[in-house]
Design goal:
The complex is a heterodimer of chains A (536) and B (64). Chain A is an all-alpha fold and 536 residues long. Chain A is 74% helix and 3% strand. In chain A, the strands form two sheets. Chain A has a two-stranded antiparallel ribbon. Chain B contains two helices and no strands. Chain B has helices at 10-34, 37-61. The longest helix of chain B is centred in the middle third of the chain and has 25 residues, at 10-34. The chains are: A mainly alpha (536), B mainly alpha (64).
Chain lengths: 536, 64
Amino acid sequence: MDIPVTPFMWVMAFLPIIVLLILMIKFNWGATEAAAIGLLITAFTGVAFYKADFFLLAVESAKGIWSAMTILLIVWTAILMYQVGDEARAFLVIRNGMRRLLPNELLLVIAMGWIFESFLQGITGFGVPVAVGAPLLIGIGVHPLWAVIIPLLGQAWGNTFGTLAAAWDSLAMSAGLTVGSAAYFKTALWTAAFLFLWNIVTGVAICWFYGKGKALKKGLPAIAVMALIQGGGELLLSQVNTTLSCFLPSCISLVVLLVLGRMKLYREEWSLEDSPIMNRESAAAGGGEAPEGMTLVQAFVPYFLLSAITLVVLLVKPINAFLGQFSIGLAFPETATGYGYVNEASANFSPLALFTHASMFLFVSSIIGLFYYKSHGWIHGGGVKRVFVKSISMTMPSGIAVIGLVIMSRIMGGTGQTVVLANGIANVLGKAYVILAPFVGLLGTFMTGSNMSSNILFGDFQMTTASLLHVDASAVLGAQSAGGAIGSAVSPSKIILGTTTANILGSEGQVMKKILGITVPATIVIGVIVYAMVAM
Amino acid sequence: MEKQSFWKTRAGHLTLAFIVIMAAFFLIMAGLAMGSEAVCVVGFVLIAAAMLYSPVEVYLLKRK
């Protein structure tokens, strides 16, 4: 590769990202509009300064659309699941039932916005916790904007070791860590330690949003127990079995939270009337009449099915192997820029194993749930058609944004802009670079919407940079993946999943603005810790 | 009150843009299969045009 890593080239590579951020945060543009401008700038800089031709742009765009399809399938099926519950008015039952089960409103928000999302992240991931969590929180009376923000925060810690450690495996593969080696476990330990820190931040932030100091005081024991189980459990398990190190603690925390709700500290009815995240008017309006005879367990049927189907398909190896053999991938030719930056040809690009994909679990759960509700008379005439029509019309607009963002990241990667961005930072800063190591991870997830993609994109780069700077690669790689996990909370592709199911499409900038206030300081802290380790 | 056709709503317009993007995707794949770079480039131009529909509608057409 002969791309000159100069300040000008670096600024040009950074331009699409900074424009995207400014449009969304400063000017409150929706992701659908901002992504188009970001894409246009990326394509322009790619051709004008990185010597890419239009054929390369076309090929990378097609790859981007194909990759976006896997996300859009999840968006559609998650919305389908939401529409099934909405049509049957199951959210009213969930709201009323969960309020009875967890009379402490703060604990209820923690349960529906953090602990349940952690559980979903442990098994499915790919934005499902955000898409599913937002309408559930709205159902218990949370303001739609906060109903998107809280699950985004709640799911982030599980991004590296969640989805049965898919992102972690990518990091190990990309950085060349041998499974079971000392370096492998040391890196896992650093990653889990940083995520433990972020997990605590998540709990504290949710309480703070709910009611500042008063809520923090009330929620602190619950946060301590949950963070110890989730973050501490993940830390311990990362040294035993990385695949289950998020999933198991997530399951345990879900059970323990329900037990906490029966204990003296949390079993009495408690809420802050002036909580800024609660929409008291909509809660008071009641949202209509709950369906006759539907119990809380019945209202949760699609979600129980989702958990059961996911667990069986992902954990029972013969079933997983059988279903996983049916996959579709596309062939793409080699492309290269005028600077000799080559994108290798691929005979089977990003194969989609449809039957083991999270969207299939969501789809099957939704369909069974739909017929279950219908058989009990909770979905009336025309309801089935309404569910499908609404789910499709809600998915289409967000589809444009997701496709735009993924194409943008593909073109940045394919023209060498991503490499220049990362190399430029490392060249200029020397050892101080390690402070920014988690930001590189965050940037990767911000662009691609996936901790796994961030680790694939930057794992090798972080490893190489750490070697060049003679610093501990384990800590740098841990910072990369933890930064990537945190970045999932501010990734426009993930945010849009929540704004779509919360029915506030176009508010992505407002969501991002609130979350950046937490993610940026947390990422700086991780960077400073790594720097302190290196300097010692 | 007369019910507005879906295709005349913003969601309908974006759905049309989505359909154009998908058509462009198949055009690029067809171009790759035929070995025609020109067809691929036409596909890319279609994608860019469909992507730009939303900002143009929201920030140019509706502001006038």
